[in-house]
């Protein structure tokens, strides 16, 4: 095997996650159980080798907590909105497929943004163009050009939030410049 | 009322509200499935409101069981829901778009159509390059 070894630092988030899953499934967070889980996690990560996810190496807890709260709030608000649309509009609802060019070109960022906006009801990723990092999003209840602009801005806002949480330094600097300008 | 039973009443009330709203979200998904006109808008209703519905129901379960070790399990269940729902919604939506299971007259804008037509024109002009673009 000539594949490059992943450094422990790069693998650590995965290992911590696996140990957490192990503890949660046994509903037992005693040191012995966690240690055994850690041994299994290392074995699994070594034997079933996958290409590592390229993390940016930056993660801001201070930004993550408000982002997570805002996200749950948005999910709640949009769920009620979809409920209302289903009951009140139903068959007469008007939709759109909107192209949203993203700032970041990293796979992780595009995936995370796609996940976040897909989880907020009323938007659904139809297609991804990886070369230009453009998301094609199907949006519920978009009736005219104004709504399209508004919707595109909301997707780019979600991406901006994610960059603040875990984007690279360069992406963050570019974002700050954009907001300042 | 002793403080302990007051707390119990509050927890019971909160979990009751969570359960009713959570069930209502699943009902909303069902209504959406019946009332929305095409596959894509149905996917919105089918996949998303129940993420909130499940969150509320799991929270109610966690509040009622009153043991701390149940929370990691519930959190895990919800995280896996968060990870899998967008992927399945995307796969169905993408397949639906490609097989044209959508009502074009209900779309106010379609910025993907031009891209797809351009790619199709390119493939028609140069059939050999078709396989290179399998992932796009």
Pick out its properties.
heterodimer; A: 181 residues; mainly alpha; 2 domains; three-stranded antiparallel β-sheet; 3 strands; B: 136 residues; 5 helices; 3% strand
Would you give an account of this structure?
The complex is a heterodimer of chains A (181) and B (136). Helices cover 61% and strands 11% of the residues of chain A. Chain A has six helices and three strands. Chain A has helices at residues 8-26, 31-47, 61-88, 107-119, 145-166, 169-180; strands spanning 95-101, 123-129, 134-139. In chain A, helix 1 packs across helix 2 and helix 4 crosses helix 5 (145-166). Chain B has one domain. Chain B has helices spanning 3-35, 39-47, 49-65, 70-98, 111-125, and one strand at 107-110. The model of chain B is unreliable at 129-136 (pLDDT under 50). At the A-B interface, helix 1, helix 3, strand 1, helix 4 and strand 2 of A face helix 1, helix 2, helix 3, helix 4 and strand 1 of B. Strand 1 of chain A pairs parallel with strand 1 of chain B.
Assembly classification: heterodimer
Q: Round the Cα radius of gyration of chain B to an integer and report it.
A: 22 Å
| Sequence of strands across the biggest β-sheet of chain A | 1-3-2
- pLDDT < 50 stretches of chain A: none
Question: Number of DSSP helices of chain A?
Answer: 6
% residues in beta strands of chain B: under 5%
H/E element order of chain A: HHHEHEEHH
N-C termini distance of chain A? 50 Å
**Terminal Cα separation of chain B, in Å?**
65 Å
Give a short overview.
The complex is a heterodimer of chains A (181) and B (136). By secondary structure, chain A is mainly α. Chain A is 61% helix and 11% strand.
What secondary-structure arrangement, pairings included, does this model have?
The complex is a heterodimer of chains A (181) and B (136).
Chain A (H helix, E strand, L loop, with lengths): L7 H19 L4 H17 L13 H28 L6 E7 L5 H13 L3 E7 L4 E6 L5 H22 L2 H12 L1
Antiparallel strand pairs in A: 1-3, 2-3
Helix pairs in contact in A: 1-2, 3-5, 4-5
Chain B lengths: L2 H33 L3 H9 L1 H17 L4 H29 L8 E4 H15 L11
Helix pairs in contact in B: 1-2, 1-3, 2-4, 3-4
């Amino acid at each position: 095997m000539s594949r490059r070894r992943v450094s422990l630092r790069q693998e650590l988030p995965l290992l911590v996650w696996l140990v957490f899953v192990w503890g949660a499934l046994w509903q037992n967070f005693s040191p012995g159980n966690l240690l055994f889980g850690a041994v299994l996690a290392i074995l699994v990560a070594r034997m079933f080798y996958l290409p590592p996810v390229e993390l940016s190496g930056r993660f801001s807890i201070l930004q993550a907590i408000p982002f997570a709260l805002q996200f749950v709030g948005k999910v709640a608000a949009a769920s009620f909105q979809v409920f209302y649309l289903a009951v009140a509009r139903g068959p007469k609802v008007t939709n759109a497929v909107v192209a949203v060019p993203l700032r970041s070109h990293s796979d992780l960022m595009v995936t995370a943004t796609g996940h976040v906006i897909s989880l907020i009801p009323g938007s659904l990723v139809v297609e991804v163009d990886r070369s230009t990092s453009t998301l094609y999003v199907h949006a519920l209840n978009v009736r005219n050009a104004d709504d399209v602009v508004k919707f595109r801005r909301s997707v780019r806002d979600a991406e901006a939030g994610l960059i603040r949480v875990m984007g690279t330094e360069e992406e963050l600097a570019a974002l700050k410049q954009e907001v300042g300008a | 009322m002793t403080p302990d039973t007051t707390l119990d009443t509050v927890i019971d009330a909160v979990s009751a509200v969570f359960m009713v709203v959570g069930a209502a979200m699943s009902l909303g998904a069902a209504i959406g499935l019946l009332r929305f006109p095409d596959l894509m808008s149905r996917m919105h209703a089918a996949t998303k409101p129940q993420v909130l519905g499940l969150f509320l129901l799991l929270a109610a379960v966690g509040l009622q069981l009153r043991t701390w070790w149940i929370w990691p399990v519930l959190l895990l269940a919800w995280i896996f829901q968060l990870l899998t729902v967008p992927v399945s919604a995307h796969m169905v939506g993408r397949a639906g778009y490609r097989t044209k299971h959508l009502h074009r007259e209900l779309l106010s804008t379609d910025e993907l159509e031009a891209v797809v037509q351009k790619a199709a024109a390119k493939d028609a002009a140069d059939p050999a390059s078709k396989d290179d673009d399998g992932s796009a």
